[in-house]
Each structure stands twice: as C-alpha cells, then as structure tokens.
Amino acid sequence: MWSDVLTPEEVVDIDGMGVTSPARTAFDIGRHVARRVAAVQRLDALAAATDVKVTDVEAIMAAHPGARGTPRLRGALALMDGGAESPQETAARLALVDAGLPAPRTQIVVRNAYGDFIARIDMGYEDVKVGIEYDGPQHWTDPAVRQRDIDKQVELADEKWRIVRVSRDLLYGRRATYVSRVMNELRRRNFTW
Prior knowledge:
It contains nine helices and six strands. By secondary structure, the protein is of the alpha+beta class. The strands form two sheets. Strands 3-4-5-6 form a four-stranded mixed sheet. Strands 1-2 form a two-stranded antiparallel ribbon. Helix 1 (about 20-30) packs across helix 4 (about 70-75), helix 2 (about 35-50) crosses helix 4 and helix 2 packs across helix 5. The longest helix has 16 residues, at about 145-160. It is elongated. The termini are far apart.
C-alpha cells in the first residue's frame, strides 16, 4: 500500500474524471514497477501515447525529493524511448543495451536516393545501416504482411541495409544468439562500441 501526495499540477481532467498527468503516471510507474524491463516497457508505451518527456518526469521528481523508489525510477527513465511500438521492441532494445551496445535508434525511416519512402525499421544503427526488426506472429501468419516484409527486405538490401530479424523465440529463448547476430553485423560494418 502506498501513500503519495499529489500536487494540483499532477492531476488532469479527462471527461470529468481526475487522473494523474502523464508525467506523474511515469513517476509512479518508474518507482513502483519492480522489474526493470516491465517498467521500461510501460514507460515506453506511455511516452508513445502521450509524448511525455524525461524532463517532464524530472520536474515531478524535483517536486517530491526523497520519494520512495526514486533510484529505480532514474534507472528506468534513462532507458525510456517513446519510439518503441510494442513491449517486445522494448525488450529487444534492452537486450542490446544490457549486452553493452549503445541503445539503437527507434523507428528509422529509410528513403531511396530519390527521397521515396522505403521502410520504417523498428530500431537500428543508422550510421552503419544495421537494423533490427521484431517479427510478431502476424509477420508469419498473415500473407499480406509477409509479402510486405519480403518486399521491404529486398528494398532495404538494395539500399545496403543489413536487417536482423528477431522473433519471440529468439528474444526470450535464445537471447545470446540474437545479440550475437546484431554484434556480428555491426562488426562487419566496422562499428565500434
């Protein structure tokens, strides 16, 4: 059971109901969700939905010095990325960070030499053209999605992108293989970390 004080600025009205502001919600998530990956997944989703920024949450932290769970919040907040579009993308990103790689940039838009849109890659290292795509079940079971993925893979290869595809099995059951694949592609491109 928690007992917290809310300032008037930390409550917003949504259809006549008082709810915590996005920054206050992030403040609470980061302090109270014990598992780091779960906390960052929730913070990523909140940032994507509300555009809450780290600085917004830091303002709440400043208003509540010494609040319980603040060190946990700082750790999770440092990893928050509103570009993640699913909990699995967050987990895939954190697996790379935990392996010692710099955090990949999320939602990279790739265009050809004429400026035409080719793809939006889940995450990657744009300067060396190494991307990571998380493939959920629909990427294998929906024929239209599968065909788009095949076409996208060819067009990205034409633009000299190397894509590491990651599935749930690879991320959760063979994480070392996933990380090794990304590291190998980065080494091929002379990326140092």
